[in-house]
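The following record pairs a protein chain with its ligand, zinc ion.
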Amino acid sequence: MTQPLWGIDLGGTKIEGAIVPSLDNPQPILRTRIDTEGHKGYEHIIHQIDKLVQTMKQQSGLQPARLGLGTPGVLDPILQTMKNCNSTALNGQPLKKDLEEKLGIPCVLANDANCFALAETHWGVVKEKAPGAQVVFGIIMGTGVGGGLVVNGHVWNGKHGIGGEWGHNFLDESGGPCYCGKTGCVETVLSGPGLQRYYKSITGSMLSLKDILAHALQGNDQAAIKTIDRLNHFFGKAVSVITNMLDPDVIVVGGGVGNIDSIYTAGVESLHKFIFNNRVDVPILKPSLGDSAGVFGAAALVA
Ligand SMILES: [Zn+2]
């Protein structure tokens, strides 16, 4: 009998845990969550993860052999410390080592976009609509922009642990400064806050993404239409880099901005202009697992 898969998704506000029977059977044995309380610092985050794992043991009557952990940033493969986390308490910390000491089991870490791509590959839309895909690229376009790469069913971390980190590729100067220290990253242009900033730069008013979209669809707010047209244009331009470099079998787009329908029509038309090919065959799909992808992907890390 195969060992059940234990996964933890470490988020900014919640830490979620799930126990999944196997890759063939994703129906969770248990799913539960706890507050991260990240403002109390790194040691407290470790304490909360341990507390959640102990609760999962008690409630399931099972013991984990290994633990998969989805994190906001990545573990540097050389330094073995965390980096690029927007939950900044984690940066510079040996999270894997500390957790393995605390829990007494091996832990496998991956960033949340990689977990998203992995979950959608094994249990989500890729399995439904592009079965047999060897190279899957997952995009999360929300508050930030992240990317994750899955090759032959496994996360591709890369030499620096930044495999798939497309969100901080240069896209356009107009995006302005990024938190990462560079300017014009994909994230500054395609994230929700990036779209809101652009709308504000034309109109002087800050609107929610939902309102900008609604105004664009109503057709009477030229600035909103321009904001969404710009999104579609740059979505195609940014995704062309992925297709020209990796030529994946399928691309899955999650996050709040990923829900905007026009990127699948006008955005793909834009991709057609920038791709080094005379047609676009790669399916660009919406995910099917919703918020569950993070914790399920974390569990799939230990399969
Ligand atoms: Zn950046």
